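Protocol step 4 of 6: record predicted structures for both targets in the notebook before any analysis. Target 1:
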Amino acid sequence: MAIIDYEKLVVDIPDYPEPGVIFKDITPLIADKQGFAAVVDDIAGHFMNAGITKVVGAEARGFLVGAPVAYRLDAGFVPARKPGKLPRAVYSANYALEYGTDVLEIHKDALTPEDRVLIVDDLVATAGTAVATAKLIERTGATLVGFGFLLELAFLKPREIIGKEFDQEIYTLVQVD
C-alpha cells in the first residue's frame, strides 16, 4: 500500500462550529479510497495482536473510523451515542468538549467482563470524549486495552488528560502541534 499523507487529505475549517475553533474535516480523507483504507489498516494493524473483542466509537465520526477498524480486527462494534438514541438500558457519562459539554451512552449489555476493548475515534483534542467513553467501558467491567485516533491535537495535551485516569496505550496517526 502507498504511504498516505493524511494531513493533506484533512481540511481545516476555521470558526466552525463557533468562532475560534478550527474544525478538522476528515470527509475528504474518508472519501479517498486509499486514504480511508490506510487509516483503517494502520489503526487495526497496530492493535492486531492485542486480542480486541470489541471496538467502541463515539458518535458520530467515531463510527466512521471505529466500525471498519472493528471489522478489520474481527471484533464487534459498540456505538457510544448521544442521549435518547439507544432503545435499552444505558450507562451515561458527561464530558467536556472544546466548545461545550455533552453526554455519551452505551447499552448496559453491550460489553461483558470478558471483552477486551479498543476505543477508536477520528480526533482527540481535550480528551473529554475519550475519557467519558473509557469510563463507560469501566462501568461494564470490560478491559480497556487502548485508544486509537486518526488525529491528535497535541497542543491541547490530550495524552496528559487521559493519563490522569487511564494508563492504556494511546496510538495516533497524525499529531497536530
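Target 2:
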Amino acid sequence: MMVIVVENAPPRLRGRLAVWLLEVRAGVYVGNYGRRQRERIWDQVVAAIGEGDAVIAWTAPTDAGFRFETVGWNRRRPVDFDGLRLVAFDPPSA
C-alpha cells in the first residue's frame, strides 16, 4: 500500500494522480502498487509538483513498517537517525 499527500499541487498533477490512485481526501491519494509502478508514479509527482510539496509513504520491511520520501519545501523534513527515518521540524518562517 502507498499513500501520497500533495499540497499546492497543480491541477494537472492532481488529475493525473486521481487516474492511478483513489483520492480519499483533498490531496490525499491511496493505492496498492508494486515498486516499479510506485517509482513511476513518484517520478511523475517529482516532475510536476512545481511550487508545491508532496510526501509518499509505502509499506516496507523496516522497523517502522514503512518508508517515505518527500519533494518540495515543507517545515517537516526527513532525517536519518542511525538507520531509522524520523521527521525534524524547521522553525516557522517569519
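Step 5 preliminary note on target 2. The chain has two helices and seven strands. Residues 2-89 form a domain with the Alpha-Beta Plaits fold (CATH 3.30.70.240).
Proceed to step 6 after PI sign-off.
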